[in-house]
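Treating backbone geometry as a discrete language has practical consequences that deserve illustration. No coordinates are needed to read the tokens, only the vocabulary itself. For completeness, the protein is quoted in full, as a sequence line and a line of structure tokens:
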Amino acid sequence: MGYGVVSAISLMSLGLSPVSVSASIHTAEVFASGASGYNHYRFGNVNKRLFRVLLLPGIAGSVSGALLLAHFGETYAGYVKALLAVYLLILGLRIITKAFQKVARKRKKVKNAGWLAGAGGFLDSFGGGGWGPLVTSTLITNGRTPRYVIGTVSLVEFFVTFASAFTFFTILGISHWQIVLGLIVGGVAAAPIAAKLAGRLPTRWMFVGVGLMVIVWSLWALRKLL
């Protein structure tokens, strides 16, 4: 959780346009999320029923977010950058809040998991990240086992990311190869380590670590924009 969000706010702080940021991240994330999803599946961290519920809505949301950003991201780059920085700041605060919320003792049925996946896919494509923090944190606070939530959401993320990357590629082509390559190498190298640690580290402190990182980078990006 946090690959896209942390990468997005980091690249935005370097001055890249929102479209270039999201397109680069999702191109690289096809490989990183593929490695992550495979390792989670290998370690038995995937709930097949939850996978089926999240898959198609996540893909639909991802494609619609990519289309919207591709058509309006360059024209309104200044506004979109500010909007995304605020969005990521709110997302970081939400992750911190989720870290200190009590997890339901009894597992609640997530009635709107499809809508959750659709919103997560849309915001992930449009904002460069958000799939993991939004979907993962919501499912965990509803009482689902962190190990299976993280594993299942990571596997679905491969398909969501592939749909987004394919949409960007069809419309814009591929640019910023150096950034894409760096993101691929780092993501693939970290994937098996993260999959093995999932469920072994305290969930609260995993959330706090990701949330603080996102908040700091968001404030840094806003400072540069203002």
User: Anything to note?
Assistant: Residues 146-172 form the longest helix (27 residues). The two ends are 29 Å apart (CA to CA).
